[in-house]
Amino acid sequence: MADHFYLGILSLNSNLLLAPLAGYTNLPFRLCVREVGGFGLASTELVHARSLLEQQYKALELIETCPADSPLAVQLFGSVAEEIRDAAQWLEAAGVAVIDLNMGCPVEKVVQRGAGAAMLRDLEKTGRLVRMVTQAVKIPVTVKTRLGWDDSRPDAVHLAPILEDAGVAALTIHGRTREGAFAGSVNLAGIRAVALSVRSMPVFGNGDVCNPQSAKRMLEETGCAGLVIGRGALSNPWVFHEIRAALDRCPPPPIPALEERVAFMTRHFLRAVALRGEAVACIQFRKMIDWYARAFGPCTALRLSMKHLHSTTQYHDLVGRFLEERRGAAGTAAPMTAAC
Ligand SMILES: Cc1cc2nc3c(=O)[nH]c(=O)nc-3n(C[C@H](O)[C@H](O)[C@H](O)COP(=O)(O)O)c2cc1C
């Protein structure tokens, strides 16, 4: 597979992309996972276009970035075309590389407002909205959606050519419907049908890709141009390198040792502390630990204790004890440092 991938005018160094994950793919996580590398583009979580135009604190926090956090897509959601257009123009002026439009969020309060997956229900209106955005900015505009509103309607097959005609640079398809939420397995044949419905717009496959096997299967069975990976990268930030090596038929990269995985988690935690403050970082890590724990092996005591995390000192204490226990020798844990 090519080293470089073109998203409109933008050259990416990989066709493996980091998916937007609300509450997870924030600046501290993105900076850490970028140090490991192996993917071409990262995205913010979904940001409400109007909240951004109103300069609401929460929206501005979601788009917080820095030069090392590049290239970056900001994912917008909303239902008012003019608001999305204006937010996209503002983001372009601020230096964002890509605008991604969310058309897949299944959450009730989002779809009730006609945003997220509700955009699959009125394709003409959605097409007009998207055209207004693509005509207003020079940077690539991409779309992320699901296969359809429910299992009886392959909406994305009809939407994809409309998006292509409206000037969208790439489309990501999560291989489930709005009704399917996160249940069951991804419908690879459904993604393939979407990929076949367009002339040349790249279609990215998404859903349940977490290792080289699932990545190969997604690419082979869908004919997609690339992959968008979410949860697989939360538990294993090295997954992009592992997949790339397999796709390029290279020997697999060395499996990161437990210490390396824990050091990654610590860098992430300390960056979150530096950016958001100790209290917020501790609360975030109470849920984050479940993802890291998947690759830590037996770690019930650490996982349960982290559910009550309240300070940086406690973090170091818990993690230090965990490593000591795993090494079977008290007092030999390596000091953990993190560059923020
Ligand atoms: C906690 C969580 C938050 C998510 N937030 C977003 C989001 O903000 N925008 C979006 O387009 N998709 C979001 N998704 C969907 C993912 O981007 C992705 O489509 C889905 O998880 C399937 O891919 P995966 O199996 O690689 O995780 C979210 C999923 C999860 C589990």
What do you see in this structure?
It is built from 15 helices and ten strands. The chain has 340 residues and is an alpha/beta fold. The model is unreliable at 329-340 (pLDDT under 50). It has helices at residues 27-36, 49-53, 57-62, 81-93, 108-111, 123-136, 155-165, 188-196, 212-222, 231-235, 239-247, 258-276, 278-293, 300-306, 312-327, and strands spanning 5-7, 10-12, 16-18, 42-48, 72-77, 98-103, 141-146, 170-174, 203-206, 226-229. The chain is globular. The chain is 46% helix and 14% strand. 46% of the residues are buried. It starts with a strand and ends in a 13-residue tail after the last helix. The strands form two sheets. The protein has an eight-stranded parallel beta sheet with strand order 3-10-9-8-7-6-5-4. A two-stranded antiparallel sheet has the order 1-2. The chain folds into two domains: 5-247, Aldolase class I (TIM Barrel); 258-327, Non-ribosomal Peptide Synthetase Peptidyl Carrier Protein, Chain A (Orthogonal Bundle), CATH 1.10.1200. It binds flavin mononucleotide.
